[in-house]
Automatic annotation (TrEMBL):
InterPro entries: ArgJ-like_dom_sf (IPR016117), Peptidase_S58_DmpA (IPR005321). This is Peptidase S58. Belongs to the peptidase S58 family. The lineage of its organism: Bacteria, Bacillati, Bacillota, Bacilli, Bacillales. One of its GO terms (molecular function) is aminopeptidase activity. Signal peptide: none annotated. Transmembrane segments: none annotated. CDD domains: nylC_like.
Amino acid sequence: MTGTIVDVPGVKVGHAQNEEALTGCSVIMLDRPSVCGVDVRGSAPGTRETDLLDPVNLVNAVHAICLSGGSAYGLDAATGVMQYLEEQGIGLEVGFGVVPIVPAAVLFDLAVGDHRIRPDRTMGFQAATAASNETCPQGNVGAGTGATVGKLNGFANAMKSGLGSASITLPNGLVVGALVAVNAVGHVMEPENGQILAGPRDDEGNIRDSVEVMKAHTFSPIPPGTNTTIAVVASNATLTKAEAKKVAQMAHDGLARTIRPIHTMFDGDTIFAVATGGIETSVDLIGTLSADVLAEAVIQAVKSAKAAGGLPSHSSIHR
């Protein structure tokens, strides 16, 4: 077991990135069409095919999920994932070939690296091609390549974040995993003790509490277009679309435990919940464990990140 989302049966993950431009995308590839739900809590989302996941709508399963940098431009990466799946003959059979169902969400990383280079169809295809269930790299990879946190004292005083993953396995064979690209405006903290791992820095380089910074202003100091945390939680449970949506809702608790503030007007925080099937269990258990592993994945995203784009990381400060 890897301790990451690829421990979930039927799940593979692939990354592609441009390390000079500091952007990339991550693809969750599914061995078979799987039930999926979504919950969008941020008020500035960039998404694709999320309406389709509403329980009242027709299509019941997805073939992959794409998480990407590049803001709205990065949604193009999902087209490359569709191209890969179509070439494999994978997708919804419509009588005139197949239509792969690939929901997607993006984060804003244009403030680092080269904003003229964004994840595109080619990068999405590369990430899909690289998908594996043997390992899941973390840190400055995929959708986390340009991710940052702690922007309430200006972007120059922010810190580098990245992509993280975690999983848990129960004795009955149930596996729950999470994959997250952490691009929060606020700070990231250990939920057990409140220790701030990465956040806004003051002029002396000290990491500050984001909420305390907000209190010092009579207006919102949140800079528009710099944020959004996007994630996928997955399990090998048997769920309906409505139940998967409930799991996605509950999983947001993992973000609330580790990121402050969260779900702001300038965030597009989005969580997809995938169920590959096989284990009968309660929705409440899956939702609770999804929040737990997502919180751990957020911590891993920050601890695995390396300094880049002129910004320090947790690991570069706490060597």
